[in-house]
Amino acid sequence: MTGMPHNAAPPGKQMLSEQVHAHLRDAIMRGDHAPGDALKPQDLAKEQGVSLAVVREALVRLVGEGLAERLPNRGFAVPPFSDRRWQEIAEARKTIEPAVLRMSVERGDVDWEARVRAAHHRLVRTPAYLPEEGEHYSGAWAEAHRAFHRTLLEGCGNPTLLETFDRLWIASELARRWSAHRNPGRDGAEEHRRLEEAALARDADTAAEVLVRHLTLTAAGLTDGADRAV
What we know:
Elements: H1 11-30, E1 38-39, H2 41-48, H3 52-64, E2 69-70, E3 76-77, H4 83-107, H5 110-125, H6 139-154, H7 159-179, H8 188-200, H9 204-226
Antiparallel strand pairs: 1-3, 2-3
């Protein structure tokens, strides 16, 4: 009879860790914990009715996703909303994503083209703002936005690069949710249309150029939002 690997977590503990991770991730993304707030394992364990080990495992995963930071005294905290942090994330995205998009344009097949078109259609047809969401992007639009950008890159066929995109996206999405505000001078829908058009036309140079500008404008908006974040 084959036993569990020596270092594997028991199924029950693993399920609890997944649940606590999902709960904390959603809470941070919703803004329930303000930038810089301490994430105290003892308090979280009591709140969730789980062990310290389960909470610490969930917090370590959040650190890997860029949604939490380790403190020098081995505690955890929500990342501070600093211009430098978000500009570093933006710089990483502007360096990596255009290169991956070029690969995707060169390698993507007909199925990839269909997925890009479908993802863009969903993005266009999803309202960005809902009355109950105030000035912040709606959750449905945020997911459609993520799906469109990820689908554009999926033609690269490289899971490691896509995992890098996922980590950077989560970190930048946190900044967006803290600073999201309407920018009447920017036409994001047109930027997305041009991205889809260039990608499906197999024009890697134009697609990469449009993406760099798109990310640059997003970074500028986050810088503005950093001044207003609470």
